[in-house]
Amino acid sequence: MLAENVEEYREGEPLRPFAVERDLSALADLIEVAFKDELQRTANSLVAEIRRLAKLGPVLWLVGGSQGFLPPLMDGYVWVADGKLVGNVSLMRESGARGLWSISNVAVLPAYRLQGIARRLMEAAICKAIDRGARQLILEVGAENEPARHLYRSLGFVAYDTVHELVMPRIRWPEQVSQSEQPLRPRRAHDASAMYDLARSVTPQMAQDIQPITLSRYEWRFAHRLSVWLGRVLGRSIRSTWVLEDAKRIVAALEITERYRPDAHQIDIMAHPQLRGTVERELLDKAFLELDRSRLDLKASASAAHAEAVQAFEEAGFETMRVLARMKLDLNTMRHGVVL
User: Fold this and answer.
1) Is residue 39 within 8 Å of 160, Cβ to Cβ?
2) Of 21-25, 221-225, 244-248, where does the model show the most confidence?
3) Domains in the chain, please, with CATH?
C-alpha cells in the first residue's frame, strides 16, 4: 500500500514537495554527505552544478517556483527533521518516451537512516508520478547497494539492465597505437537507417521496451546539425562517428565526443552480436588515434550484456568506477495506491 494523497501535506510535517528556489543549497549538502565516496570515486560534478544553480537565488523562482512561468526545473520531495533537510527524492519526466519518468537523488543523511524515510519519499514520488500520468518509472542504483535495491524491489521495481561506467586517466594513454586494420570510415548522412538497425540489434530488448529506439535519433536533421555546429563554435564539444560495414550493412560503430579541458572525452561503441569479441579493441584504437592530439581523461559506459566491450575497455587501461543496476516500475499495474 502506497502513502495516499501525499500532495495534501500540512505545514510542519516532515514530508513536503521539493522547492527549487529554497532547497537547492541544502540538497547539495545532502548529496555531498550521502554520496561522498561515490562522488569522489567518479569525480562527479553534480554537487558543484547544484551549488552554481543555488547562487541564482530569486531567479530560480521563475524557472522552478510553484508560481513560475516555466516548467519546474526539478520535482520531487524532501524530508525535514530537526530544522534541516535530511532526505530527498527527485522526479523528472524523460524526453523521447511517452509516459516515462525517472527517479534520482534518493538520499538520506546517515544519522536518519533505518527510520523508513527513504520508503516514504519513494512512495510519495510514485504517487506523484501516477498523478502526472506516468506509465513507467526508471532509476539507477549501485549494483552493490543491496539495501537500496531491496527497498526498490519491495516497491515493485525490477531490474532490466546493468551498466558499467568506466574511466581512464590520461596518464594511462597507450604509448603506441596501431592503425586499425578494419576499414573504418566516417559516418555519412545516408547511414541513418543502418545505424538504427545496428542500435536495435545491440540494445537489450527490455531496455528498448522502456525507451524505444527511433530512426529520427540517427537522422541528421537541422536540429542535429545546428547542435553540432554550436558545439564547435562555443568550444564545448566535437562529436564524430566512425562505422565499420560489411557488404550489406553497418556492423559496428564508434562515437567520440571530444571535449575541452578540464572535462573528459567520451567514447561509445556498438558491435553487432555476431562480431562481438572481434572488433571492440580496434574501435578503441581508432579512438586513441583520433584523440591523440588532445589527450584528456576518457569516460565510457557499456552494458553488461556486451561483456566483450567491458573487457576491451579494461584491457585498454580503463577502470570500472561503478556498476549501476537499472530498474523499472510499471505503473499500469498500480491502481488506487495498491500494487496489483
Assistant:
1) no
2) 244-248
3) 15-158+327-339 (3.40.630.30), 175-316 (3.40.630.30)
